[in-house]
Amino acid sequence: NPKKARQFGDYLLVGAYTDETIHRKKGRNFPLQTLHERALNILACKFVDDILLAAPWRVTADLLTTMNIAVVVTGRNNIYADGLAEGQPDPCGLGDPFIEARDVGKLEVVQTTCSLTMDVIAERIVENAMTYTRRQKGKEIAELDYNNHKTFVAES
């Protein structure tokens, strides 16, 4: 939640992963938008000051220092928010992205009330695909009918 994240400082830099990183994290058919489409959406948010394109998966000490980051914020709904327990398998196989930020006390986890995630959007797309296809087929038939039967109408 950018609004909540902004409350931790006076400048909000949002990291956007590469398409390949999201594909590795979420699986086939992800991301739903390209990196550039996601960047435009992120920058449209009034709470965001800048974006780090192709952000690395792991927030490293070097990144924290180089970008002068005071705090890293993630949502409670992030599977890595509390880190991985000893012996817990990594669900994405990419490692805990916040381990270094957590170790130096720079990780803040915010409660999120928004239930809209990439998974929910993808489910909606699948659920509505047939409705969309039927509607578009009907429009195509109507357009073909119009084009095949249109006649000249003289204006008076």
Overview of the structural elements:
- This protein has 156 residues and is mainly alpha-helical.
- The protein has six helices and four strands; from the N terminus they run H-E-H-H-E-H-E-H-E-H.
- Helix 5 (99-103) links the parallel strand 3 (72-75) and strand 4 (107-110).
- The model has no long low-confidence stretch (mean pLDDT 91).
- Spatial ordering of strands, largest sheet: 1-2
* Rg, Cα atoms, Å: 22 Å
Number of helices: 6
Mean pLDDT: 91
Tell the overall outline. elongated
Give the biggest beta sheet. Answer: 2 strands, parallel
Helix coverage percent = 40-55%
Could you tell me how far the N terminus lies from the C terminus, measured between alpha carbons in angstroms? 61 Å
Question: What series of H and E elements makes up the topology?
Answer: HEHHEHEHEH
Number of strands: 4
Give the low-pLDDT segments.
Answer: none
Structural class: mainly alpha
Query: Strand-residue fraction?
Result: 5-15%
Notable characteristics:
156 residues, mainly alpha, 4 strands, two-stranded parallel ribbon, two-stranded parallel sheet
Could you give a quick summary of the protein structure above?
With 156 residues, the protein is mainly alpha-helical.
SSE blueprint:
Blueprint: H1 2-6, E1 13-16, H2 19-26, H3 35-43, E2 50-53, H4 61-66, E3 72-75, H5 99-103, E4 107-110, H6 118-149
Parallel strand pairs: 1-2, 3-4
